Amino acid sequence: LFGVPPLGASILWPDPGRAPFFVDQFKPEELVFGGIVLETLPKGLIGFFLVAMFAATLSTINAGYNLDSSVISRDLYAGLINRRASDRQVLLVGRLATVFLGLVTMVTAIIYAKSSLGIFNLMVVFLSLFYMPLAIPLAFGLVFKSLPRWSAANAVVLGTLTSTVTRFILNWPVGYQLYATIGVTFGALLLARPLARLHQRSAALAALAAMLWAGLMAWGGLSTTSLGKGRAGVVLLAACAFAAVLYWFVVLFARETPQDRKEVEAFFARLAIPVDVQREVYGAGKRISSSFPLVGRLALAVGVVVFLQMLDPACRDALPVRVAVGGILSGTGALFVFLHKRTEKHSLHG
Predict the structure, then answer these.
(1) For the chain, where are the alpha helices, taking DSSP H only?
(2) pLDDT digit string, tens, across residues 123-145
């Protein structure tokens, strides 16, 4: 659904910068979605579209705030900082975290709006900096249980350091930046166990291996990019920080105890147990509620309103569009309500 308007805009406005609608607009290619809506939809449907966009944005932000505040209040505060925290303290920290995240979001939006890079390029920069260093350890941690306990944190820190240096110091293109970040993140995970064993044999050899890896990284960056003395010094400092962080985590890897391994084994044992819906959900007196009826009735109501708008002579412009939109909304809503009733009937008989 969200991909159709930009495709239509590419046909209507092959060069958005020269279209009359985007005169004096900064980064017109990022405004084609709103432009296609304002230029093609009838007046009444524009309001519905704006309401739907705001509702989708609010629900997404709300879910993100709840998730992030729970991580900060429960996992970080109650799990690491204050293990004896009461429910009231955890709730207060969660609320403060939500306010803080909201302020950060508003400041970020202002920066995005005034940046010369544009929203799309800023999103690419942000994802290249943080997405790969976070996503790769998460996937590895759910699949491989032989990794040391602190290997994910090590990969996140080293991957983020690599992406930051390649982006802001070396000024590499996004592609090469991603290749370097992915390589370092994978290497930090795959070499965690061998480096831990090396440290158990000889701490000096482990430190030498960390410095060798950091030196190769610095040599690769300096040999492929022409830098002044200032930036070259920053790259060398980053390489020293890389080696220090890596060696510190290697020490943690080597100190892993049998109890730590038992906790990892227990986690994967729980992960392998499938959810027993009959016992854990229905047996506890809970009932699964479906969003089909609510969404279906709302879509059906909006479709009926679109049809009723055609009774007003002032809203009879673009009649085929109104008929198509009203029919799609009404049909989708009726289908959702029908599917809910059918599913409910099967669950009762089952």
Answers:
(1) 4-12, 32-40, 43-70, 87-114, 119-143, 151-164, 174-190, 192-201, 203-224, 229-254, 258-272, 277, 292-309, 319-349
(2) 777 777 888 898 899 888 888 88
